[in-house]
Amino acid sequence: MKLLVTGGAGYIGGVVTHALVEAGHQVVVLDDLSTGFAQTIPVGVEFHRLPVHQVAQVLTPDAAFDGVLHFAAKIEVAESVARPDLYWDINVGGTMALLTAIRAAGVPRVIFSSTGSMYDPTSVVPLAGGGFSKLGEDAEVRPLNPYAATKLAVDLMLAGECEAFGLGATSLRYFNASGAVGGLGERHTPESHLIPIVLQVAGGQREQLMMYGDDYPTPDGTCVRDYIHVADLATAHLLALGAIAPGRHEIYNLGNGDGYSVKQVIDAAREVTGHPIPVKLAPRRPGDPAATVAASDKARRELGWRPARPALLDIVADAWAFHQSIG
Ligand SMILES: NC(=O)c1ccc[n+]([C@@H]2O[C@H](COP(=O)([O-])OP(=O)(O)OC[C@H]3O[C@@H](n4cnc5c(N)ncnc54)[C@H](O)[C@@H]3O)[C@@H](O)[C@H]2O)c1
Ligand SMILES: O=c1ccn([C@@H]2O[C@H](COP(=O)(O)OP(=O)(O)O[C@H]3O[C@H](CO)[C@@H](O)[C@H](O)[C@H]3O)[C@@H](O)[C@H]2O)c(=O)[nH]1
């Protein structure tokens, strides 16, 4: 297929772009490089440095795209609380521009990077035998921050496009993307995500980890997340691409179904890196849900998706190898 990837110079979009090229697809990347890196884009892939609002310059009827994978977005919870305007403009306004171009060009399929962080976190509770109750696609949504609200808004927009105009769309609600594939890993400037920051502390680039709150209603008081390997997310995109049907909007939750607390992630990083990782307790970060853990039964059943690298230690080890490779 001929595919447009928005945000293909970013962390997840970059890994997926490489996987698409390896699978034999013709890929065109659009990215404004606001948080991405041009070096991430595979050699030979056509690249347009443009904001998503201007996507119609690339996504023309003549270009005859078979599909779009839409990663380009602002992605930080805390920033979204401070600058909601930016999040509505880029995540929702940018997607409106994309959908207008898609309609005008008659592109038949779209995959959207949605989030597992939009569900009501009070639905996730520790179970007596261990583990947590999990969030399926029909769990109640209750976005706690503008970032999650914009992702929900786009999911709703896509449902309407499919019904009214016959588009085929899939919203992949990733839980916490992590790990690395060779030279492709997570790096943002400034970094805000837990695993890369913990590894910066292990690598001596930061003195300590600020741990945002230990008074959440979770077993050890720190927030619980479902960490999913970025390579497993890439596999899900390839499977979803083959399953999209005209006029249908499908949603899939993508996670391993295992919840790990911030303290457990720090312990895993201590084990993988052999470094002590000093921690300082800080106030809660605004907008953080206490716990998010995925039920991915639908993706397993309908797409045949099977995460290949579910263990937290493997995920952290791959991220650590990447971290060391970039110095
Ligand atoms: N990282 C996660 O854990 C996670 C979880 C759920 C959903 N997501 C979603 O997955 C997608 C990719 O996330 P990521 O972690 O790879 O982030 P990232 O910041 O590494 O990638 C985003 C890419 O989009 C580009 N971009 C941003 N704004 C743009 C704009 N206005 N026009 C054109 N390009 C623009 C950036 O330059 C970057 O290359 C996002 O939509 C994010 O919301 C991420
Ligand atoms: O220095 C830090 C950084 C993070 N955390 C905590 O670690 C947890 C995970 O935080 P982070 O890695 O920033 O991820 P999330 O806020 O859970 O959000 C990520 O995961 C979501 C899906 O669950 C995506 O939608 C978002 O784009 C992505 O940023 C949270 O409890 C944070 O409070 C700390 O305690 N200290």
TrEMBL record:
Pathway: Carbohydrate metabolism; galactose metabolism
Record's catalysed reaction(s): UDP-alpha-D-glucose = UDP-alpha-D-galactose
Transmembrane parts of this sequence: none
Molecular function terms from GO: UDP-glucose 4-epimerase activity
InterPro entries given in the database record: Epimerase_deHydtase (IPR001509), NAD(P)-bd_dom_sf (IPR036291), UDP_G4E (IPR005886)
Keywords attached to this entry: Carbohydrate metabolism, Isomerase, NAD
Quaternary structure, from the entry: Homodimer.
Record-linked PANTHER family: UDP-ARABINOSE 4-EPIMERASE 1, UDP-GLUCOSE 4-EPIMERASE
Protein's name in the database: UDP-glucose 4-epimerase
Organism of provenance: Trebonia kvetii
